[in-house]
Amino acid sequence: MTRIIDLRMLYEDTAKLSSSPVYLSKALEMAGEGNEVVLTGKAPVWLYLAVAHALHGKARKLVYRSPVTGDVVIFDHDPF
Q: Domain limits at 42?
């Protein structure tokens, strides 16, 4: 199953580093276990990196999606 996480939905006006545990908890809940996860949305680079790190070992596949780059596979642990 593919889960799309718009990182902009994790915070209100400005993402705050001090609130990163809250953002990571929300992202992990949205991702579920063993799914393909697509990260998208306006967010600071540090938040993308933190969420990607948190999802390693939880998601089967992680993809970054942007209008500029399209889909970029960050990792893929699908054995097939």
A: 2-76
